[in-house]
Amino acid sequence: MSRRERREFTEEFKLQMVQLYNNGKPRSEIIKEYDLTASAFANWIVKYNKTGLFKACDNRTEEEKELIKLKKENQQLRMENDILKQAALIMGRK
Fold first, then answer.
1. Are 42 and 61 in contact (CB under 8 A)?
2. What tens digit of pLDDT does each residue of 70-84 get?
3. Measured between alpha carbons, how far is 84 from 67 in angstroms, rounded to an integer?
4. Helix, strand, or coil (residue 60)
5. Cα Rg of the chain (Å, integer)
6. 9-59 pLDDT, tens per residue?
7. The pTM of the whole model exceeds 0.70
8. What backbone torsions phi and psi does residue 17 show, to the nearest 5 degrees?
9. Where are the domains of the chain?
């Protein structure tokens, strides 16, 4: 079984597909007619019906955004701390 080439869909296309589904067209018919993957289509439906948006970064809560920011900051501080430890070891040898 060969892998399908990754395709990009516009926001307008995704919106049309979700609206078809929300207006009563069966999920299986939409997937078959437009040659979509079931998982991608399911994600579009969940994201749009939850927030009205399709991008993951637009669907994050404020807490999720803050957590991502703090994790990045924590990683940066750990790297800086490791560099300072190495510098202290080097300076201590001289």
1. no
2. 999 999 999 999 999
3. 26
4. coil
5. 23
6. 898 999 999 999 999 999 999 999 999 999 999 999 988 888 777 766 666
7. no
8. -65, -45
9. 7-59, 60-94
